[in-house]
Amino acid sequence: MLKILIVDDQKPVRDGLKQAVDWNRLGYExxxxxxxxxxxLDFIQSHTVDVMLTDIIMxxxxxxxxxNELNRNLNIKTIILSGYNEFEYAREAIRLGAYDYLTKxxxxxxxxxxxxxxxxxxxxxxxxxxxxxxxxxxAREAFLNKxxxxxxxxxxxxxxxxxxxxLGLEPELYYTIVNMRIMYLNEDALNNRDEQRxxxxxxxALRKFRVLQIFESDARDICILIGSANKEISxxxxxxxxxxxxxxxxxxxxxxxxxxxxxxxxxxxxxxDEANLAIDS
Length: 281
Hints:
Elements: E1 2-7, H1 11-20, H2 23-26, E2 28-34, H3 37-46, E3 51-55, H4 63-73, E4 77-82, H5 87-96, E5 100-103, H6 108-148, H7 155-165, E6 174-184, H8 192-205, E7 211-216, E8 222-228, H9 236-246, E9 252-258, E10 262-263, H10 268-280
Parallel strand pairs: 1-2, 1-3, 3-4, 4-5
Antiparallel strand pairs: 6-8, 6-9, 6-10, 7-8
Helix pairs in contact: 3-4, 4-5, 6-7, 8-9
Protein backbone atom coordinates (compact mmCIF):
# COMPACT_ATOMS: atom_id res chain seq x y z
CA MET A 1 0.00 0.00 0.00
CA LEU A 2 1.21 3.49 -0.86
CA LYS A 3 0.83 6.13 1.85
CA ILE A 4 -0.96 9.38 0.99
CA LEU A 5 -1.16 12.59 2.98
CA ILE A 6 -4.05 15.03 2.48
CA VAL A 7 -3.27 18.72 3.05
CA ASP A 8 -6.05 21.31 3.05
CA ASP A 9 -6.99 24.10 5.44
CA GLN A 10 -10.68 23.17 5.21
CA LYS A 11 -11.68 20.16 7.29
CA PRO A 12 -14.81 19.36 5.21
CA VAL A 13 -12.58 19.07 2.13
CA ARG A 14 -10.19 16.73 3.91
CA ASP A 15 -13.03 14.60 5.27
CA GLY A 16 -14.71 14.50 1.88
CA LEU A 17 -11.55 13.30 0.14
CA LYS A 18 -11.02 10.59 2.75
CA GLN A 19 -14.58 9.30 2.45
CA ALA A 20 -15.27 9.69 -1.27
CA VAL A 21 -12.33 7.64 -2.55
CA ASP A 22 -11.98 3.87 -2.15
CA TRP A 23 -8.31 4.19 -1.21
CA ASN A 24 -7.71 0.50 -0.49
CA ARG A 25 -9.06 -0.55 -3.88
CA LEU A 26 -6.60 1.81 -5.54
CA GLY A 27 -3.68 0.50 -3.49
CA TYR A 28 -3.44 3.44 -1.08
CA GLU A 29 -3.74 4.10 2.61
CA UNK A 30 -4.45 7.55 3.99
CA UNK A 31 -1.48 8.10 6.29
CA UNK A 32 -3.00 11.28 7.68
CA UNK A 33 -4.59 14.64 6.97
CA UNK A 34 -3.38 18.06 8.10
CA UNK A 35 -4.61 21.64 7.77
CA UNK A 36 -1.49 23.51 6.65
CA UNK A 37 1.85 23.16 4.90
CA UNK A 38 3.87 23.43 8.11
CA UNK A 39 1.89 20.59 9.66
CA UNK A 40 2.51 18.58 6.49
CA LEU A 41 6.27 19.04 6.79
CA ASP A 42 6.15 18.04 10.46
CA PHE A 43 4.05 14.97 9.62
CA ILE A 44 6.43 13.85 6.87
CA GLN A 45 9.37 13.98 9.27
CA SER A 46 7.88 11.18 11.38
CA HIS A 47 5.73 9.22 8.90
CA THR A 48 6.22 7.47 5.58
CA VAL A 49 4.50 9.40 2.79
CA ASP A 50 4.62 8.40 -0.89
CA VAL A 51 2.00 10.78 -2.29
CA MET A 52 0.68 14.14 -1.12
CA LEU A 53 -2.64 15.64 -2.16
CA THR A 54 -2.50 19.32 -1.29
CA ASP A 55 -4.44 22.54 -1.72
CA ILE A 56 -2.47 25.26 -3.44
CA ILE A 57 -3.79 28.25 -1.48
CA MET A 58 -3.30 27.97 2.28
CA UNK A 59 -2.39 30.37 5.11
CA UNK A 60 1.26 31.10 5.95
CA UNK A 61 2.85 28.67 3.46
CA UNK A 62 1.09 27.84 0.21
CA UNK A 63 1.26 24.63 -1.81
CA UNK A 64 4.03 25.97 -4.06
CA UNK A 65 6.34 26.63 -1.11
CA UNK A 66 5.49 23.18 0.26
CA UNK A 67 6.45 21.49 -3.02
CA ASN A 68 9.65 23.48 -3.18
CA GLU A 69 10.52 22.40 0.37
CA LEU A 70 9.83 18.75 -0.41
CA ASN A 71 12.01 18.86 -3.52
CA ARG A 72 15.09 19.50 -1.38
CA ASN A 73 15.20 16.10 0.27
CA LEU A 74 12.17 13.95 -0.43
CA ASN A 75 10.81 12.02 -3.38
CA ILE A 76 7.09 12.50 -2.79
CA LYS A 77 4.65 12.65 -5.67
CA THR A 78 2.36 15.66 -5.33
CA ILE A 79 -1.15 16.27 -6.65
CA ILE A 80 -2.24 19.91 -6.49
CA LEU A 81 -5.83 21.04 -5.86
CA SER A 82 -6.54 24.45 -7.34
CA GLY A 83 -9.51 26.72 -7.95
CA TYR A 84 -10.55 27.83 -11.43
CA ASN A 85 -8.89 31.22 -10.91
CA GLU A 86 -5.60 29.67 -9.73
CA PHE A 87 -4.32 28.18 -13.00
CA GLU A 88 -1.07 30.17 -12.92
CA TYR A 89 -0.35 28.68 -9.49
CA ALA A 90 -1.08 25.19 -10.82
CA ARG A 91 1.21 25.71 -13.80
CA GLU A 92 3.99 26.88 -11.48
CA ALA A 93 3.40 23.79 -9.31
CA ILE A 94 3.93 21.54 -12.34
CA ARG A 95 7.12 23.42 -13.17
CA LEU A 96 8.32 22.83 -9.61
CA GLY A 97 7.74 19.10 -9.98
CA ALA A 98 4.13 18.41 -8.97
CA TYR A 99 2.90 15.23 -10.65
CA ASP A 100 -0.50 16.61 -11.66
CA TYR A 101 -3.24 18.99 -10.62
CA LEU A 102 -7.02 18.99 -10.27
CA THR A 103 -9.45 21.88 -10.13
CA LYS A 104 -12.05 22.21 -7.42
CA UNK A 105 -14.64 20.86 -7.02
CA UNK A 106 -12.77 17.59 -7.50
CA UNK A 107 -14.07 15.10 -10.05
CA UNK A 108 -13.25 11.87 -8.27
CA UNK A 109 -13.00 9.75 -11.40
CA UNK A 110 -10.19 12.06 -12.57
CA UNK A 111 -8.49 11.82 -9.18
CA UNK A 112 -8.62 8.02 -9.36
CA UNK A 113 -6.96 8.04 -12.81
CA UNK A 114 -4.15 10.22 -11.49
CA UNK A 115 -3.71 7.99 -8.44
CA UNK A 116 -3.49 4.88 -10.64
CA UNK A 117 -0.89 6.58 -12.87
CA UNK A 118 1.15 7.69 -9.86
CA UNK A 119 1.10 4.19 -8.39
CA UNK A 120 2.39 2.75 -11.66
CA UNK A 121 5.08 5.45 -11.85
CA UNK A 122 6.26 4.82 -8.28
CA UNK A 123 6.43 1.05 -8.70
CA UNK A 124 8.30 1.41 -12.01
CA UNK A 125 10.78 3.80 -10.39
CA UNK A 126 11.33 1.41 -7.50
CA UNK A 127 11.90 -1.51 -9.88
CA UNK A 128 14.35 0.55 -11.92
CA UNK A 129 16.26 1.45 -8.75
CA UNK A 130 16.35 -2.20 -7.70
CA UNK A 131 17.55 -3.22 -11.16
CA UNK A 132 20.20 -0.49 -11.15
CA UNK A 133 21.36 -1.57 -7.69
CA UNK A 134 21.58 -5.19 -8.82
CA UNK A 135 23.59 -4.16 -11.88
CA UNK A 136 25.92 -2.09 -9.71
CA UNK A 137 26.40 -4.98 -7.30
CA UNK A 138 27.06 -7.31 -10.21
CA ALA A 139 29.58 -4.86 -11.69
CA ARG A 140 31.34 -4.51 -8.34
CA GLU A 141 31.58 -8.27 -7.93
CA ALA A 142 32.89 -8.70 -11.49
CA PHE A 143 35.54 -6.01 -10.92
CA LEU A 144 36.66 -7.46 -7.58
CA ASN A 145 37.04 -10.89 -9.14
CA LYS A 146 39.23 -9.40 -11.86
CA UNK A 147 41.25 -7.45 -9.32
CA UNK A 148 42.03 -10.46 -7.11
CA UNK A 149 43.01 -12.50 -10.16
CA UNK A 150 45.57 -9.95 -11.30
CA UNK A 151 43.66 -8.76 -14.36
CA UNK A 152 44.91 -5.17 -13.98
CA UNK A 153 48.46 -4.10 -14.78
CA UNK A 154 47.74 -0.36 -14.74
CA UNK A 155 46.99 1.02 -11.28
CA UNK A 156 45.37 4.15 -12.75
CA UNK A 157 42.89 2.02 -14.67
CA UNK A 158 42.09 0.07 -11.52
CA UNK A 159 41.62 3.28 -9.51
CA UNK A 160 39.30 4.70 -12.18
CA UNK A 161 37.11 1.60 -11.96
CA UNK A 162 37.21 1.69 -8.16
CA UNK A 163 36.06 5.31 -8.08
CA UNK A 164 33.30 4.65 -10.60
CA UNK A 165 31.98 1.74 -8.53
CA UNK A 166 32.48 3.58 -5.22
CA LEU A 167 34.39 0.70 -3.65
CA GLY A 168 36.64 2.73 -1.35
CA LEU A 169 39.86 0.86 -2.17
CA GLU A 170 43.00 3.00 -1.93
CA PRO A 171 46.33 2.37 -3.71
CA GLU A 172 48.59 2.94 -0.68
CA LEU A 173 46.83 0.59 1.74
CA TYR A 174 47.87 -2.91 2.77
CA TYR A 175 45.53 -5.73 1.73
CA THR A 176 44.90 -9.34 2.60
CA ILE A 177 42.47 -11.92 1.29
CA VAL A 178 40.45 -14.41 3.31
CA ASN A 179 38.61 -17.14 1.41
CA MET A 180 35.80 -19.13 3.00
CA ARG A 181 34.32 -22.24 1.47
CA ILE A 182 31.17 -23.89 2.79
CA MET A 183 31.11 -27.66 2.35
CA TYR A 184 27.57 -29.01 2.75
CA LEU A 185 27.40 -32.53 4.15
CA ASN A 186 24.17 -33.36 2.35
CA GLU A 187 21.69 -31.73 -0.01
CA ASP A 188 19.17 -31.25 2.78
CA ALA A 189 21.66 -28.96 4.50
CA LEU A 190 21.67 -26.44 1.63
CA ASN A 191 20.35 -23.19 3.01
CA ASN A 192 20.90 -19.74 1.53
CA ARG A 193 19.95 -18.19 4.84
CA ASP A 194 22.99 -19.84 6.44
CA GLU A 195 25.25 -18.17 3.88
CA GLN A 196 23.51 -14.82 4.32
CA ARG A 197 23.87 -15.11 8.09
CA UNK A 198 27.54 -15.99 7.69
CA UNK A 199 28.17 -12.93 5.51
CA UNK A 200 26.47 -10.70 8.11
CA UNK A 201 28.56 -12.22 10.90
CA UNK A 202 31.73 -11.71 8.86
CA UNK A 203 30.85 -8.07 8.25
CA UNK A 204 30.16 -7.48 11.93
CA ALA A 205 33.36 -9.21 13.05
CA LEU A 206 35.62 -7.35 10.60
CA ARG A 207 34.02 -3.90 10.52
CA LYS A 208 36.97 -2.39 12.42
CA PHE A 209 39.08 -2.47 9.27
CA ARG A 210 39.33 0.59 7.04
CA VAL A 211 38.31 -1.32 3.91
CA LEU A 212 36.13 -4.40 3.81
CA GLN A 213 34.65 -5.96 0.69
CA ILE A 214 32.80 -9.28 0.87
CA PHE A 215 31.86 -10.91 -2.43
CA GLU A 216 31.41 -14.25 -4.11
CA SER A 217 34.45 -15.37 -6.05
CA ASP A 218 34.25 -17.07 -9.43
CA ALA A 219 35.03 -20.30 -7.57
CA ARG A 220 31.82 -19.77 -5.52
CA ASP A 221 33.80 -19.12 -2.34
CA ILE A 222 33.08 -16.23 0.00
CA CYS A 223 35.97 -13.87 -0.66
CA ILE A 224 36.86 -11.20 1.89
CA LEU A 225 39.14 -8.33 0.87
CA ILE A 226 40.50 -6.45 3.89
CA GLY A 227 42.41 -3.18 3.64
CA SER A 228 44.30 -1.32 6.36
CA ALA A 229 46.83 1.47 6.75
CA ASN A 230 48.83 -0.87 8.99
CA LYS A 231 51.10 -3.51 7.51
CA GLU A 232 50.16 -6.00 10.21
CA ILE A 233 46.61 -7.10 9.46
CA SER A 234 45.59 -9.58 12.13
CA UNK A 235 42.25 -11.26 11.44
CA UNK A 236 42.66 -14.73 12.96
CA UNK A 237 40.98 -13.79 16.23
CA UNK A 238 37.91 -12.59 14.35
CA UNK A 239 37.96 -15.55 11.95
CA UNK A 240 38.21 -18.05 14.79
CA UNK A 241 35.30 -16.30 16.47
CA UNK A 242 33.20 -16.77 13.34
CA UNK A 243 34.18 -20.45 13.16
CA UNK A 244 33.14 -20.98 16.76
CA UNK A 245 29.76 -19.37 16.15
CA UNK A 246 28.85 -21.72 13.30
CA UNK A 247 30.38 -24.96 14.56
CA UNK A 248 27.05 -25.82 16.15
CA UNK A 249 25.49 -26.30 12.71
CA UNK A 250 25.97 -29.98 11.80
CA UNK A 251 24.90 -29.44 8.20
CA UNK A 252 28.13 -28.02 6.82
CA UNK A 253 31.84 -27.50 7.38
CA UNK A 254 33.59 -24.17 6.90
CA UNK A 255 37.07 -24.14 5.32
CA UNK A 256 39.14 -20.96 5.58
CA UNK A 257 42.21 -19.85 3.63
CA UNK A 258 44.21 -16.74 4.56
CA UNK A 259 46.63 -14.94 2.27
CA UNK A 260 49.60 -12.86 3.36
CA UNK A 261 49.36 -9.08 3.56
CA UNK A 262 50.41 -7.20 0.41
CA UNK A 263 50.84 -3.49 -0.26
CA UNK A 264 48.89 -1.80 -3.04
CA UNK A 265 46.15 -2.80 -5.43
CA UNK A 266 48.16 -4.70 -8.01
CA UNK A 267 49.55 -7.27 -5.55
CA UNK A 268 46.18 -8.27 -4.09
CA UNK A 269 46.15 -11.21 -6.50
CA UNK A 270 49.19 -12.72 -4.72
CA UNK A 271 47.30 -12.74 -1.42
CA UNK A 272 44.31 -14.26 -3.23
CA ASP A 273 46.44 -17.07 -4.68
CA GLU A 274 47.87 -17.80 -1.24
CA ALA A 275 44.38 -17.92 0.29
CA ASN A 276 43.28 -20.36 -2.40
CA LEU A 277 46.28 -22.60 -1.78
CA ALA A 278 45.60 -22.52 1.95
CA ILE A 279 41.94 -23.43 1.54
CA ASP A 280 42.76 -26.32 -0.80
CA SER A 281 45.50 -27.77 1.39
